[in-house]
# Entry
Amino acid sequence: MKYVVAINASPRTGWNTAMLVKKAAEGAEAAGAQVDYFDLYQSEAFTGCISCFGCKREGHLGRCIHKDGLSPILEAIEKADGLIIGSPNYLGDLTAGFRALYERLIFQSLSYKTDPRSYRKKKTPVLLITTSNCPEAAYPNTGYDTMLEKYKGTLEWIIGPTKILVHGDTLQVKNYDLFDWTMFDPEAKKARHESEFPKALEKAFTEGYALL
# Structure
């Protein structure tokens, strides 16, 4: 049986990003895979790379030796046949939690040798899901497309073939009246969510099903 790791790198455990990651995980399960799901921000305390270079020493080549809340997730990814990871867009980038995982996941595999450049032997397909308040049509003008392509390029180099699923112009909260936000039309946000989010969920399921 194939094994897939699904990670919600949003601090919110039941909103847009988490729902899309879970739906993609359901797709992978429907295709016959065993799935382990992680809410990254519910893990024990963790950091990004601490620059100890332990992953470049004999006996630990390609393995992060820093032990914290990311350790079991990194170990699971190493065993996985597929990886689903989702993050909202925060200030034009993915979340700090995602960045910490990304640093540790990628840097442990970089060899700092002329050949091979990576210690990682296997290729694991990746589905990268991102959500944002920004409409998808605005991505080219905001640099968000470039940001995602950067992540895709590195993930494909080190981890494996990577697909990106974007859902923009999201419904941020259930009750907009609780917040001092005047730039949004709550009814328009809700209407879009009701009409478009089910389509995004369906697409996430389809991509998860096809991951392997």
